[in-house]
Amino acid sequence: MTSNTPHKPSRSDRLKPAELIGLSGVMAVFVGLIILLSTREMMLSLIAFGIAFIVVLVVIAMFALNIKPDAAEKSDIEEQNHGNK
After folding, report:
1. I need a labelling partner for 85 at 20 to 30 A (CA). Which of 9, 32, 44, 55 fits?
2. Contact 49/85 with Cβ under 8 angstroms?
3. In the chain, where are the structural domains located?
4. Cα separation of 4 and 67, whole Å?
5. Between residues 34 and 15, the one the model is more confident about
6. Count of CB atoms situated within 10 Å of the CB of 32
7. CB count, 10 Å around CB of 10?
8. pTM, whole model, 2 decimals?
9. Any stretches that span the bilayer, and where are they (predicted)?
């Protein structure tokens, strides 16, 4: 890849945020349903859903920040930092 061509993310790279939000949503729905089926209180279930969604999203973000970039990602970061001057 030359320094003049912009990096085009793959379809997998573009869909990654949607996958992570979807995973967080599925886990939150599971928690919300468990609370709803055990207590039969809709408001408590919605509160648990919201809390679970946010907590799972933050935990996934922390795991994503902990991943070390590979060689291709490092070269892309260097290109973005120094390539457009």
Report:
1. 9
2. no
3. 15-67
4. 28
5. 34
6. 21
7. 8
8. 0.72
9. 20-37, 43-65
